[in-house]
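Students often ask why we bother encoding 3D structure as a string. The short answer is that it lets us treat folding as translation between two languages. Here is a chain of 470 residues written in the first language.
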Amino acid sequence: MNADNGYQNMNIQESVTGDCSNGAAHMTGFTTSQEYEQNMGNLSQFNINDADQNCAMLAARKREEIDGENEEDDITAINAQINNSFINNFNFTKKPHLFFSLLHYHYCGRGKSNTRTAILHRPHALNALTTSMGARLQKFYSKWEDDPDIGFVMMKGSGRAYCAGGDIVTLYHQISEGKIEASKEFFKTLYTFIYLLGTYLKPHVALLNGVTMGGGGGVSIPGTFRVATDKTVFATPETIIGFHPDAGASFYLSHLPGHIGEYLALTGEKLSGAEMLACGLATHYSLSVKLPQLEEHLGNLVTNDFSVVETSLQEFTDVVLPDNMSVFHRLETLNECFSHDTVEEIIDCLENEATKTDHAWCASTLKRLREVSPLSLKVSLRSIREGRYQTLADCLVREYRMSLQGISGKVSKDFHEGVRARMVDRDFSPKWDPPSLDRVSEDMVDQYFSPLSNSEPDLELPTKLREAFP
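And here it is in the second language, the structure alphabet:
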């Protein structure tokens, strides 16, 4: 989980169906919901710009129940205005999609075709995930999987991010206010969706055009296809905020070649789109300028065949290699150092390599390891090592235990302190507890992997109904 917090005041609570046969249009002044329906009936996508937010939040065909716990306070005020409000200044596009907006979230789906596209739409928060978003993803992905008329599903983000992870600032405030149950619900909801994605029976294409961090990897990498671009920036930076790589990261990082997974988990260092492709986190690479054509091509497909989707993606791929500064040119040293059993041994190896080679990569890696939470380092290393021999479901269940321990503060309050220093006060001077590796006991690490209490239920996933692919 790693994302900034921000809100967009918009709430359109119902879908609108139909074909886009009249091209682009600019429509204003619907004075009733009935007039709104009549005018919207022949359009299948509408897009809402930032300038339209104040009027967009007043639009609705009818109310539907808001999923998730404790929606933002302004929803009450928004809903009170809906019946007597009007919409204007919508921008309509020609793309044949059905576009409907939920709190902080846009879905885009084909009205009469074979695809659906979910658009994560909290651009000012880098599309950070909330409990409500996770619940709605679960709802619609389940519906789309069961619909025989839908062949495959895509997901993308708005603005300069795919998804920067979970909304950790909201989690910070929930913890500060003692609302631990709300935080538990966030992890439960998100991890359950990730398991659905990892066992999805239809092709799934994630367009990773921009920031893809923490939980953003969780809602993309378990799926079938991941398209990275020249704008992709990937990381699992949880140790920087006193947490652990979660949202399925202990599964997919542990299955990377060599010991790249340990390196990424412990340091939180970034990868480019080219590096994601090189290590297998991405399945395809395409220049970002080609994405509109790629999306249009995929949107015209009528198929549920994985190989057909794969062939279509290949038509838009570009040949790319990691640049000269990439960590992938130092894999021999990386694998030697990060193969050691303990964090202390990893650091010792890096120090020895730095003395022998005087290479900047060793120095920068050591600097990062000394900055992050010592407890998180030991917990994350063990998590990746365990994940190498576990299923996706096993990893998510274990990560759920670990996340509850992390937010509860029973072992350490490092998560709360890390978010405070990085995202709230922004002094970038966290006071870790324990402050050093030698103060992190085995008992602390063991407790991090234990249930929060004897009565605390584990995460329940539908493993008997849905088996994850290897």
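Translate back mentally: The chain has a mean pLDDT of 80. Keep this in mind for the problem set.
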